[in-house]
């Protein structure tokens, strides 16, 4: 006989784990289904996730009021999650934006400043001279100015955050199944889920499978999403380099050329015991659509040309990195046409979807998970939660 749950969340990543936690705080009969991180990426033939890392930037300074609001709400709960789980994942290192003086209200930094003003977020604006003198790790172009979010910003450890969410979901009574879901369909007034060769039933199901949402018959129709490959570069730091970079904030650098935009994470210790400074960009093109494409990409070290471009950019911005060993890795970002996440139901009122991080959602994942839980509990989202702006679009 198939096991029956009231609610099933499919996807044990940052959004799915958060949704399971929020559900478990309110109701019994919750299950979270999703495989853990593979031990060997190159031989793994299942699904992957992009939270397999130790650092993601967190900030409230954002040009989109929706993303700014979601980040604020999530950050408000960071310490609660840490204290409840006993797992630390938030480092309050601050966040710095560097870019040219905005020329109009259409520019990202001006829009972000306007949103900050409207929400009461305090951002320190720095002249070019102040930017360089305050952050000596960098050699910024002389025409760039700075926007510094000092408090309640910095970086989170996505692996640790997922562990914390799952620990609290279990404590709340949720069943956590390390399995790969291969089918979701409505049948006879309930939803049937096949995962790990077993069959489960639920009153409602939330599909939070990230870039893999369109695979494995999880949804009745494919979403309009683009799973885009991204390459990240790591600079290995020794004790001497840490004297230079150890106190730097999370940093995002805009220049006139989009291909030179980069984000930079402060030094973080990784599971191999080494400390790395991580840098990434956002210009790679292409789509990953088939399972074999995902497997090949996640099993690689990323794009070698993009790796070299990022290394060159890093050395221009941070000359003290010269001579440090480098490595690279592959990541995937899931983009929607609206630039906002999807949080809504499919044709069935029993199957909902939550995805579309648009390369900025890690910091807001707890709030997105809360919204996913509301979809299952309440059957929809209010305009206070930007519900109409997150309606899923299908092909």
CATH fold-level label of the largest domain: D-Amino Acid Oxidase, Chain A, domain 2
Summed up, the helix count is 10
Kindly provide the name of the CATH class of the largest domain. Alpha Beta
Helix/sheet category: alpha+beta
Q: What number is the mean pLDDT? A: 95
- What is the name of the CATH superfamily of the largest domain? D-Amino Acid Oxidase, subunit A, domain 2
The percentage of residues in β strands lies in: 25-35%
- How would you sum up the major sheet? 8 strands, mixed
Task: Give the oligomeric state of the chains in this entry, treating copies of one chain as homo and distinct chains as hetero.
Answer: single chain
What letter string, H or E per element, gives the SSE order? EHEEHHEEHEHEEHEEEEEHEEEHHEEEH
Radius of gyration: 21 Å
Number of strands: 19
Report low-confidence residues grouped into runs of 5 or more. none
Specify the overall morphology. globular
Q: If classified by CATH, what would the architecture of the largest domain be?
A: 2-Layer Sandwich
Task: Describe the 3D structure.
- This protein is an alpha+beta fold and 395 residues long.
- The protein has two domains: 3-53 and 158-224 and 338-390, FAD/NAD(P)-binding domain; 92-154 and 226-335, D-Amino Acid Oxidase, Chain A, domain 2 (2-Layer Sandwich), CATH 3.30.9.
- The protein is built from ten helices and 19 strands.
- Strands 1, 2, 9, 10, 11, 12, 18 and 19 form an eight-stranded mixed beta sheet that branches. The chain has an eight-stranded mixed beta sheet with strand order 6-7-5-14-15-16-13-17.
- Helix 1 (14-24) runs parallel beside helix 6, helix 1 (14-24) crosses helix 10 and helix 2 (65-76) packs across helix 10.
